[in-house]
Amino acid sequence: MRWCVYLSGEIHTDWREKIINAAEQANLPIDFTSAVTNHEASDAAGDVLGEEADNFWRDNKSARVNAIRTRTLIEKSDIVIVRFGDKYKQWNAAFDAGQCAALGKPYITLHDEDIIHPLKEVDGSAMAWAKTPEQVVELLKYVTSQQ
Asked: What is the DSSP string of 81-132?
């Protein structure tokens, strides 16, 4: 079986590349998908629908256009990895985790210990909490193992 793993959350570090590269090196049967990780492109996703004078409506349009991709890929995934970084608040990642919980979709959170408290509900519905991309890869090795 090939697994589909959706990578959600923080876009300012190389955690996605670390997981993808290590999974490829381990020859894991995984296809990875993700939201658009180019911040400017994501913010401009709705611009094709017309200019907005108010940033609220620009963000609203772009969020809806981005949700076409995000919802579809989360629904099609077998597992979702949700990364919370320390530099920015990832409300979108929390929303993705909530969507996974509502769908009964297994997800793994990835974050440092210093944000355990604000993520207690998100972690409470997760199947696992990892602190490093390497731990995520070890979990993926076990889950995709045919032994």
From this structure: EEE--SSS--HHHHHHHHHHHHHT--EEEE--GGGTGGGHHHHHHSSEEESS
Q: Report the predicted TM-score, pTM, of the whole model to 2 decimal places.
A: 0.94
C-alpha 53/C-alpha 98 separation (Å) is: 31
CA 106 to chain centre: 12
Question: Domain boundaries in the chain?
Answer: 3-38+70-144
Distance in angstroms (rounded) separating the CA atoms of residues 87 and 89? 7
Give the residue among 119, 117, 128 at the shortest CA–CA distance from 90. Answer: 119
pLDDT of residue 76 exceeding 90, the answer is yes
Which CATH fold would you assign to the domain 3-38+70-144? Rossmann fold (3.40.50)
Q: Which one, of 3, 15, 9, 5, lies nearest residue 97 by Cα?
A: 9
Q: Give the 3-state secondary structure of residue 24.
A: helix
Q: In what order do the strands lie in the sheet with 79-83?
A: 30-34, 3-9, 79-83, 107-110, 128-130
The answer, yes or no, to whether residue 88 has pLDDT greater than 80, is no
Q: What rounded mean pLDDT belongs to the chain?
A: 95
